[in-house]
Design brief:
The protein is 68% helix and 10% strand. By secondary structure, it is α+β, with helices and mostly antiparallel strands. Strands 2-1-3-4 form a 4-stranded antiparallel sheet, with no helix packed on it. β1 and β2 form a beta hairpin. The chain is elongated, with a radius of gyration of 32 Å.
Length: 215
């Protein structure tokens, strides 16, 4: 009798194993919700036309959000972001290299005047970078104001604002915010270099004159 029960139990477990394995390996079902021309659409499958749209993925079992995906950048936005990243990386690399050279050469300057001239080159570079960013921001502001006037004229004329115009306004607004953030960072760097110069001068004096007197 015991052997029959054991055999029956083993048979039952073997029959349930494929079902449990299938349930474990089956992908978790989820619901997709995305924006479609201003409308919120949800479904259990994401159509190809919505792949680049911002969307939220929700577990069909728990009802909780499992993932949020931003919309894909337009070619213009992607190119602008890549250009900003390359410019920032190049500027950071140039400034870092200059800082390393200054520190390495601190012990070989013939006078404090030479040390100051080396730092002045970096200061001039930063001042020119700040001016270029300010000019770029002014240009973006002027262009954005022109686009906003066009949108306002359309509304006042009882016409809908064209979608390409709305997209362009959003893109230029985002670019303006990025440029303003970059300018703030450049100004911080400009302010910090004065402290670096004072530190380098102090180090120079310590090297040249252990008692702290100017050489």
């Amino acid at each position: 009798m015991k052997k029959s029960i054991a055999l029956l139990t083993a048979t039952l477990l073997l029959s349930l194993a494929p079902l449990a394995l299938a349930q474990k390996s089956a992908p978790a079902k989820k619901v997709y919700c995305w924006d479609d021309n201003g409308r919120r659409v949800c479904g259990d499958a994401l159509p190809a036309s919505a792949v680049d749209n911002a969307r939220t993925e929700i577990s069909a079992v728990s009802g909780l959000t499992t993932r949020a995906v931003d919309r894909a950048l337009t070619p213009g936005e992607r190119a602008a972001a890549d250009a900003d990243a390359e410019a920032n990386a190049a500027a950071a690399a140039a400034l870092a290299a200059a800082a390393r050279r200054d520190r390495a050469m601190a012990e070989s300057y013939a006078s404090e005047a030479e040390l100051r001239r080396a730092f002045q080159h970096r200061i001039t570079l930063l001042d020119e970078t700040v001016k270029a960013s300010q000019l770029g921001i002014a240009g973006l502001r002027h262009s954005l104001l022109s686009l906003l006037r066009r949108a306002s004229d359309s509304e006042l004329g009882g016409k809908p604002i064209p979608k390409p115009l709305t997209a362009t306004i959003q893109t230029q607004h985002d670019q303006l915010l990025r440029q303003q953030s970059l300018l703030a960072e450049q100004r911080r760097d400009r302010g910090e270099i004065e402290g670096e110069l004072e530190g380098a001068l102090q180090r120079y004096r310590e090297i040249k004159s252990p008692d702290g007197a100017d050489s």
